[in-house]
């Protein structure tokens, strides 16, 4: 629920809402939908079909998914490399713009990143999707939470983001130091003569 709350705060900042209650309707612990006349932002970890039924028309809307299609025991991905949970959602919501974001970091780090905004180089947040305008909206949302948005390309890149999430989970929940873990990508100039 903490992850949904911090993202809702960013939504409030992004769209000028007066309070989280004005912007957020929580369907259950794993699903949050923001409704406005212009957009629908859904943060989904499971139950996508229920969310789509409850959301009404998503035509022309933006759906942000952090889905991770796991088996019942939560031990392995059931979709990977040839498709992704995000792509499956896009097939079920054909008239919406589906963007995969917020799935590659543990929720335990969200408040720390939000509170550290402006105090140094922010951690990265990978996102991907096929609609450039929707990606701009989501990049702004990612930046509002305190991350550096890193565009991973088209929605098919979620095939690789979802397994990367499994690595992050391994480090966060089974490694040392606890789950408040983030990552940062940096580019350097190539050096010759090596």
Give Rg in angstroms: 16 Å
Q: Characterize the largest beta sheet: strand count, sense, and whether it forms a barrel.
A: 4 strands, mixed
What class do helices, strands and sheet pairing give?
A: alpha/beta
Q: What is the general shape?
A: globular
| CATH-defined architecture | 3-Layer(aba) Sandwich
Q: What is the name of the CATH topology? A: Rossmann fold
CATH superfamily: NAD(P)-binding Rossmann-like Domain
Question: Can you offer a commentary on this structure?
Answer:
The protein has 194 residues and is α/β, with parallel strands linked by helices. It has one domain (2-174): Rossmann fold, CATH 3.40.50. It has helices spanning 2-15, 20-23, 48-55, 85-92, 110-115, 132-145, 158-174; strands at 24-28, 31-35, 40-44, 62-65, 97-101, 124-129, 148-151. 37% of the residues are buried.
Question: Can you summarize this structure?
Answer:
With about 190 residues, the protein is α/β, with parallel strands linked by helices. It is about 35% helix and about 20% strand. The strands form two sheets. It has a four-stranded mixed β-sheet with strand order 4-5-6-7, with helices on both faces. It has a three-stranded antiparallel β-sheet with strand order 1-2-3, with helices on both faces.
């Amino acid at each position: 629920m903490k992850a949904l709350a911090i993202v809702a705060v960013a939504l409030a900042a992004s769209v000028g809402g007066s309070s989280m209650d004005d912007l957020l309707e929580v369907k259950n612990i794993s699903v949050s939908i923001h409704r406005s006349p212009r957009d629908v932002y859904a943060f989904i970890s499971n139950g996508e079909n229920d969310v789509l039924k409850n959301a009404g028309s998503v035509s022309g809307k933006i759906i942000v998914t952090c889905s991770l299609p796991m088996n019942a025991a939560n031990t392995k991905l059931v979709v990977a490399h040839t498709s992704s949970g995000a792509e499956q959602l896009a097939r079920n919501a054909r008239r919406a713009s589906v963007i995969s974001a917020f799935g590659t970091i543990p929720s335990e780090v969200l408040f720390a990143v939000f509170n550290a905004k402006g105090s140094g180089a922010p951690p990265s947040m990978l996102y991907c999707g096929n609609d450039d305008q929707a990606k701009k909206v989501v990049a702004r949302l990612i930046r509002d939470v305190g991350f550096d948005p890193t565009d991973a390309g088209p929605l098919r890149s979620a095939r690789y983001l979802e397994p990367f999430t499994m690595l992050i989970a391994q480090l966060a929940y089974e490694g040392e130091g606890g789950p408040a873990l983030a990552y940062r990508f940096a580019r350097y100039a190539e050096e010759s003569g090596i």
